[in-house]
Amino acid sequence: MKQKFVLIAAVIFGLIAAMLSRAWIKGKQDEYDRERARLFGSAVKVQVVAAARTLPKGTILTMEDIGGTEVFESGVRGHVVLREDYLRIIGRRLEQTIDRGAPIFWSDIEGGDTGFRGLAHDVQSGMRAISIAVSGASAVSGMVRPNDTVDVLGTFVFGTADDPRASELVTLTMLQNVTVLATGMETAKTVNPQQRSSGGYSTVTLEVTPREAEVLVFAQQMKGRLTLSLRNPADVTFAPEIPRVDFERIESELRQLNEYRQSTIRKQPIP
Q1: 10 Å Cβ neighbour count for 92?
Q2: Is residue 73 within 8 Å of residue 45, measured between CB atoms?
Q3: Which residue ranges make up each domain of the chain?
Q4: For residue 94, which phi and psi values (nearest 5 degrees)?
Q5: How far is the C-alpha of 30 from the C-alpha of 125, rounded, in Å?
Q6: Number of neighbours of residue 46 by Cβ within 10 angstroms
Q7: Tens of pLDDT, residues 42-79
Q8: Helical H runs in 62-209?
Q9: What is the Cα 235 distance to its own chain's centre?
Q10: 45-117: which CATH topology?
Q11: CA distances for 9 relative to 63, 105, 171, 217, angstroms
Q12: Which has more confidence, 16 or 91?
């Protein structure tokens, strides 16, 4: 009988202890919830870009790679890619692996936030960026875009050797296979690859050597007209001898020029 009483008492005390423990834990949880509400009750959440799937290092981001999530602004201000900035990271490379659902930070993106870093970080060491004035026609009707390669042609008025008072119009190829860094304010990292170029720019920024930069500045100061000739990105050939053109040369070589083009360009059969 005594053993039975001891067993019943142990069960009762065990239940009381469990109830007290549960009440204590609940009290602590309520205290934690109140403190959390006090700390984060006025905190602002922001919509940010997140990985739609696990993205390995080196991934070139596409629309299918990104999604959205919410985070507290106070913890990520200025570092995370906001949802409204998602187009700025399309086509750019990841510097590290990002887990599925994790926010994407500017430090994860090659080149970081181009809005703060500027164009200077895109210029190769030993090269210079220089802008030239262009119109729609001189930039291939505004179809030249950042990362394209072009030849730069210049048209100038020169004095003739026979009569210093006379002048003649001359066009010559000044630079070949030059990389376009920007068209207007648009760079390769800010351009939307899914949007067709509007051609609404009046300057093109080129990546050139220091000596080539001097040539371009001098050409513009001479009131020369600079024109861009768009190249296929896979064409890296260099023509060592391109004679300058004046009216006399055009008149004497038009037939030869046309025959050369017809004989060297392989015509595709009409389907």
Answers
A1: 18
A2: yes
A3: 45-117, 119-264
A4: -80, 140
A5: 59
A6: 17
A7: 556 788 899 999 999 989 999 999 998 888 766 565 57
A8: 73-76, 114-117
A9: 23
A10: Type Iii Antifreeze Protein Isoform Hplc 12 (3.90.1210)
A11: 67, 60, 109, 99
A12: 91
